């Protein structure tokens, strides 16, 4: 997910307190309206799941000076694109070998079933 954050001052350092968030990536920094700046960012929790922080969760500093975050905007996600998928499974002799005491064929069949069972058939084929 991408968000725009508008704030005063340049982005030299970005210490962020996101209530336990593990990582943040900042990109597409736009300084054309300096001193008001904007940038896109992605924030992930400790399980690497995208998060949408609130404006009060963001602390922005420049050279140790706290700057005001004026807005956070998260555009709606685009609708999913229909997917056509094809599964092929190797049936050669190598599939009789085991991985962690489980035949590779059993692992392939389990993965194929999981793929099919989790595919949204209302849009996909």
In words, what does this structure look like?
The protein has about 120 residues and is mainly β. The chain has two domains: about 5-75, no CATH class; about 85-120, no CATH class. Helices cover about 10% and strands about 30% of the residues. The protein contains one helix and nine strands. The chain has one helix at about 105-120, and strands at about 5-10, 25-30, 35-45, 50, 60, 65, 70-75, 100, 100-105. Strands 1, 2, 3, 4 and 7 form a five-stranded antiparallel beta sheet that branches. A two-stranded antiparallel sheet has the order 5-6. The protein is elongated. Residues about 1-20 have low confidence and may be disordered.
**Could you say which overall geometry the principal axes of the C-alpha atoms support?**
elongated
Helix content: 10-25%
Give the tally of β-strands: 9
- Largest sheet at a glance? 5 strands, antiparallel
Class by SSE composition: mainly beta
C-alpha end-to-end distance: 26 Å
Defining traits:
two-stranded antiparallel sheet, elongated, 125 residues, 12% helix, single chain
Summarize, please.
With 125 residues, the protein is mainly beta. Helix content is 12%, strand content 32%.
Give the topology.
Layout: E1 3-8, E2 23-30, E3 36-44, E4 50-51, E5 60-62, E6 65-67, E7 69-73, E8 98-99, E9 102-103, H1 104-118
Antiparallel strand pairs: 1-3, 1-7, 2-3, 3-4, 5-6, 8-9
